[in-house]
Protein 1
Amino acid sequence: HDEGWMYWLKMTELLRFICLFYLTRHAGSMMRGSDIFSTSRGTVSERGRNRSWLLSSIITVNVLILGIALVSGSVFNNVKINAINLQIFLIVLVILTTAWMLYYTIYTSREDHAVLYKDSYAGPVWLRGGLVLLGLCSLIMDVFKIANYVGYLHCDSAVKIAFPVVQALFILVQTYFLWLHAKDCVQLQQNITRCGLMLTLSTNLMLWMAAVTEESIHQTVVLPEDGNSTHSYDIRAPGGSSSCNCSHSACAVLEKAYYYLYPFNIEYSLFASAMAYVMWKNVGRLVDEHNHHSLHFRLKDVLVGPAVGLVMLVAGLGTFVIYKVDVESGEPGKRDTALMIHYVMNTVAVTLMSVSTVAGCAIYRLDQRDHVSGKNPTRSLDVGLLIGASFGQFTICYFTIVAVVATGAEGHLNALNLAVSLLTVIQLCLQNIFIIEGLHREPFHEDIHRASVFTNPYVLQAQTHRDIHNLPGTFMETKTLTWKRRALKEICAFLLLCNILLWIMPAFGARPQFDNTIGAEFYEFTMWAAVVNIGLPFGIFYRMHSVASLFEVFLTS
């Protein structure tokens, strides 16, 4: 009996061991299968994301290359593509993009799980406010265009009226779309969303290219061989005349008015392109919000930087008005004086800006703030645009330096031209370093000093109308800026206003590159016009983008 019992006991132990072994193996295989399934699912998701990125990028490349071909062809009369063909292409793009933005807005409003996360760094309120302001100016420009082209309707194509109408509708829809959805991290319909955002980006870049081309042709001037006067040089209308005349008397005023609004429309397209790109990068992104800092705009304790910056801005605008009036007068003596004043003003501005950025970089060396960690599409785009846009100004400056040095730098104008170009190169390098360093620093933590204020309770009973902060034991919070914070804010405010000045002058028609003939004489006019008209739009955008970046550095300092 004992032997039988022992036998069954051993058999039971053996069966239990076999069962445990089987269950262990089976559980292991199940876990491996789960891991394989999870890995496979992650791989499929990664492949799907890469395919959607590739598809949306292909859409962008094709639209942009086709658009560049049409823009280039519409410039010259000897090519059988005119501005009407380009505008038809732009109308189609704008309608498709507007339809997609409306679809996106309706879809995300109905689907609760379409947008689960928001990127708090993307589309800050001041950037969206700037977009609204630029969009408003663009709408006014379109209204002026419509009123102007109505006068040519009897002898010109109706497409010229249809385009500003469609563009105005596009600006309204896009501004509303970006105001609401600039922070979205879309989780549903990711492929469609990526393609739609790339279409939006392409459309805005095409509108930017068309506007830059039109504005550059309008502003391009060439000095005749006698050197006595300057005149506009429009390569699309060599004779300077047209058989189509306006039917009302306001056409000349309206045309001049909407050309002055072109800079705002150009910046609007670039702002919208940047915001669309950030949205594209955020599609499918899971955002961690715990590192976000709430930033507030305050000018308290900041005085010297804004004051000096305003003085520079007012003085620069005054010299700019003198420059425009004297250059347009056509008298060589006045033109040379205007150029000299313009060069001196720019020399003073970039010199002070360079000194300020050196001081700011020195403060960063003493700063104990940590550098930001983690990926941020907005910050990466800001840095990329800052460096990329500065190449336009670098190009013009170095071409000017070579031309002036090669010709001997004779005369005060050429010496000042050389000095401005060299100082601008230095200022661009220093400002890029200062802004990039500021964008990569964590925001300052405010020092809050608490002071206990005890008051006489009998007096409080007699003066019940006093503020509740004067009650016994109440704490009053006073926020003070350290000297490093104050210095950085002063520098940022000064640089911001100076960059606004350096944006205004070229954006609204200052073209010393053409008024001073050394570049056109050294490189020949065709090559020099290409260098200036390609590099200057990027230089103008660099100044506006620097304003936005400096404002962000101001907030985090």
Protein 2
Amino acid sequence: MSLNESSEDPRFIVWFDIDNTLYSASTRISQAMGQRIHAYFVSLGLSEEEASGLHHKYYTEYGLALRGLTRHHDIDPLDFDQKCDGTLPLEEMIEPNPA
């Protein structure tokens, strides 16, 4: 779809990078996300060791594990998002900080 074509859902999507930039590292969001990404690699049929190696390789080469997964594997990025980002219990991990 080109930028000029309309989609079924007219809402704008805003992505926030929450890797210790918007929230303190003490929330451990990055660690929780890493565990979910690792589990996703394992769900592709990789051993724990293979999953760790490939996750690190894609993160290093592409800046995102997802970019490597979409480039080299037949995965649905929305499935990845749902199983990794979508399962983070952010309501439990982040507390309001009005400062």
Protein 3
Amino acid sequence: MVVVDEKTMLPPPPSYSLPRNHPNIPELLHPPPFSAPFRTLASFSDLPSHLLLHIVHRTFPQAPDKSYNMLERQRKTLRWLTTSLRLVNRTFYIACMHVLRSTYLPSYSSLIRRPYTSDPFPLTQTPSNDACTPLNRSRETIVLDLFIALKVHDDVWADESELHLGQPEAFRDLFDLMQPRARLEDLLCAYLVPLRLDLTAYSVTFAPRRVGVVGPSRRTIVDVERVKDEKLEVAAKRLARKLKEYLAARR
């Protein structure tokens, strides 16, 4: 037998039509709030970098295929990373470029013309708030990315047709002009780091016998001669010295 003690029984739930500050409604008996805080949906951008890299690596062929051999399928996947997956968002771009650059860097380095040097990822890069902004992203890194975009298509075309003869003119332009010029710009900026100059609007002209610096007015402000087969480091030091003299004279 159950004895019901009416004094210990709680009152019935209040009507939702009554205001929350009604004196007859205890605070603990107020109805729960129905407006839950807005929660953003998770996306690929929220994944940690190691998981994104794992996803990118899993896009490569994992099983044999009768139509293509493993190397051909890998080259097709590398082209797909370049033309499609890296364009999804910034996080996928970073993950794809990590894979692409690490894959093609040995091939890129093997094509550097002597006595030129190469360093697409200089360790002397400065933070983004530094005045020497070109060092925030190596200008030779841009050349490496252009090489990757050219190489992925060239490899797939060579796999698909024996009539494809390659693109020697495009590779020649990259390594005879664009790579040494970009490397010279990186060296020049590295030598001028103590001056904390903003060299964003400056560029370098490169020729077999002469190199120069082009200012914001699109005119060559200083230039120096160079001998054939001279190292880029030597020419960059002379160019940096002359640019310092030019800037000091204008103050």
